[in-house]
Amino acid sequence: MDSIITNNYPLHFNNTAYEKLSTFIEKNNFSKIIIITDTNTRLLCLNKFYSKFNKENEIVNISFSAGEKNKNLSTCEELWTSLSKYGVDRSSLIINLGGGVVTDLGGFVASTFLRGIQFINMPTTLLSMVDASIGGKTGIDLNNIKNQIGVINNPSMVIIDSEFLETLPLEEMKSGFSEMIKHSLITGITYWEAIKSTNIISFLPENCFYNSILIKSKIVGDDPYEKGLRKVLNYGHTVGHAIETFCLNTDNRKDLTHGHSIALGMVIEGYLSTIKLNFDKKLNSEINHFLLLNFEKNIFSEKEIEEIIRLMSFDKKNKDGQINFVLLKEIGKPMVDQKIDTNTIKKSFKYLNDFS
């Protein structure tokens, strides 16, 4: 796969990526190199990285407990303290080796320590390869509400080694596949046709994988600070983030992966698209059958729906107290800043509950 050069930084792939990383480190003569992992990627990915990069003696590893629940200020404080202990200065480099939690949190830690030091993202999950590691969004959750604290600050480069996908359970592969489905719906029918013929359980086509990375990198390169175009990447996320937060906060609910939550969000926001923008109902049903073939449907009670709608009020796209959605007029024609009343949102959850 060819490197992708965005307006702000390059994305390099597989063996070429390690060559580019070595050249970058030699050229910059960093005072220290820190690699941040969580406990999962430390166990499953760190030695694989060392076997290909072969600079183990020059790199210090610091790690934190895996899981979205640890994407918070307390973990940041632990990492900042470790960076101080190891004498990290503004001429140092941080490499974030992990999934979306690691790249989000590690990027935020790097961006705020000593008012900012250089960092590289090295995603190890499908979700982080096609989405989280690209675009410079860094941050942490506040009271388990997604990404309430953060800054937009680009990495020096993104290193994508597709061999790390071999370490993933199916649930995590499907989580990333959800974002690929979203990319197809917001960009055009040709990619949707390719995606809907993909069986993520048995095979991930390289062209689809690469295409999603291209789509994400182009959109964020054209609109790095989410003034307009970049908002389309939030399709499924207004509802999906609220569902993810709700399940995280509710003892009798199983935590859902980010991608699973976004898939349910796309079912609901697809229905809203048919109401608000006259999106084709037959096509919407086809999309939703595909989504719920890959992701288990969750049913929500009226009380739970009320709480999820309350959580939507914290969404960063909102303005003047109004919940804003990205909805589809057609496949490849997303419309941003769409306002929906509460009763219609409730009807969309009933649509999910009843869909079969």
Description:
The structure is a single chain. With 356 residues, the protein is α/β, with parallel strands linked by helices. It has two domains: 4-167, 3-Layer(aba) Sandwich (Rossmann fold), CATH 3.40.50.1970; 170-354, Dehydroquinate synthase-like - alpha domain (Dehydroquinate synthase-like, alpha domain, Up-down Bundle). It is built from 14 helices and eleven strands. It has helices spanning 14-28, 39-44, 46-53, 73-85, 100-112, 126-132, 170-187, 189-196, 206-222, 237-249, 258-276, 281-294, 302-312, 342-354, and strands at 4-5, 10-13, 33-38, 59-64, 93-98, 118-123, 137-142, 145-152, 158-160, 324-330, 333-339. Helix 13 (302-312) crosses helix 14. The mean pLDDT is 95.
Feature tags:
alpha/beta; 49% helix; Rossmann fold; three-stranded mixed β-sheet; 17% strand; Dehydroquinate synthase-like, alpha domain; four-stranded parallel β-sheet
Summarize the structure.
The chain is of the alpha/beta class. Strand 10 and strand 11 form a beta hairpin.
Please describe the topology of this protein.
Blueprint: E1 4-5, E2 10-13, H1 14-28, E3 33-38, H2 39-44, H3 46-53, E4 59-64, H4 73-85, E5 93-98, H5 100-112, E6 118-123, H6 126-132, E7 137-142, E8 145-152, E9 158-160, H7 170-187, H8 189-196, H9 206-222, H10 237-249, H11 258-276, H12 281-294, H13 302-312, E10 324-330, E11 333-339, H14 342-354
Parallel strand pairs: 2-9, 3-4, 3-5, 5-6
Antiparallel strand pairs: 1-2, 7-8, 10-11
